[in-house]
UniProtKB/TrEMBL annotation:
<dbReference type="GO" id="GO:0003700">
    <property type="term" value="F:DNA-binding transcription factor activity"/>
</dbReference>
<protein>
    <submittedName>
        <fullName>FadR family transcriptional regulator</fullName>
    </submittedName>
</protein>
<dbReference type="InterPro" id="IPR008920">
    <property type="entry name" value="TF_FadR/GntR_C"/>
</dbReference>
<keyword id="KW-0238">DNA-binding</keyword>
<feature type="domain" description="HTH gntR-type">
    <location>
        <begin position="14"/>
        <end position="82"/>
    </location>
</feature>
<dbReference type="InterPro" id="IPR000524">
    <property type="entry name" value="Tscrpt_reg_HTH_GntR"/>
</dbReference>
<dbReference type="GO" id="GO:0003677">
    <property type="term" value="F:DNA binding"/>
</dbReference>
<dbReference type="InterPro" id="IPR011711">
    <property type="entry name" value="GntR_C"/>
</dbReference>
<keyword id="KW-0805">Transcription regulation</keyword>
<dbReference type="InterPro" id="IPR036388">
    <property type="entry name" value="WH-like_DNA-bd_sf"/>
</dbReference>
<dbReference type="Pfam" id="PF07729">
    <property type="entry name" value="FCD"/>
</dbReference>
<keyword id="KW-0804">Transcription</keyword>
<dbReference type="InterPro" id="IPR036390">
    <property type="entry name" value="WH_DNA-bd_sf"/>
</dbReference>
<dbReference type="Pfam" id="PF00392">
    <property type="entry name" value="GntR"/>
</dbReference>
Amino acid sequence: MNPLIETIKAIEVETPVEKIIRQLKHLIVSGQLKPGDRLPAERVLAEKFGVGRSYVREAILKLEFYGLLKTSPQSGTYVSGLSINVLDNLLTDLINFNKDDFNALIEARYYLELSAVRVAAERRTEEDLHAMERALDEYEYKIAQGLNGVEEDLLFHIKIARATKNPVIESMLLILIPDLVKSINENKVCGEERGLLSIPEHRAILKALEEKDSDAAEKAMANHLNEIFQISRAGYDAKKLLDNNAE
């Protein structure tokens, strides 16, 4: 084979979220958006970017938990006070994060979620439990209708992370979980029946959290994540997954 061919790399297609992050980076680095400036509403941004609000919301959440944006329920979302150089480096890392090794990300998520659910079992409030219950009810309704419950699945895991009351654990999982859950579900890495199988597994996790049983919560979470964890350890083709997800 011609050595030149070996140097050619596949074209990487950015997701809508990555494109939104990149454009916001440009606005901040160029000085058009300064620390303290308020971003337009999600609806307005979605119209300007020409995408659904869920993409804008995911980009803002990632930027917020990286400390690059700050959101106040009363006054909206603002650019943080970090320096341009810090913002530039963090935003570059954030955009490239999703291109990392799939199997390594699965492993990181597995061990982080086992730790997080133990902490959540100790610190969860009744409000946290209600939020998890609502997410599961909506997830099960969608699955019963033959729909994709990926957003509700994602929300349940994020609510567990939030119940730890540890912003570092929460932010790390918020960075890891969304793209992994979406990729796993959309590409049916665990098969067509994964949605149905997840229902009793989710309920076992919630029951352990309700009882504040850290050991049972960890065991239930390990059982829930075991299939994808074993697939990743067996050397699942990460490149194929990412290529499929970009098409």
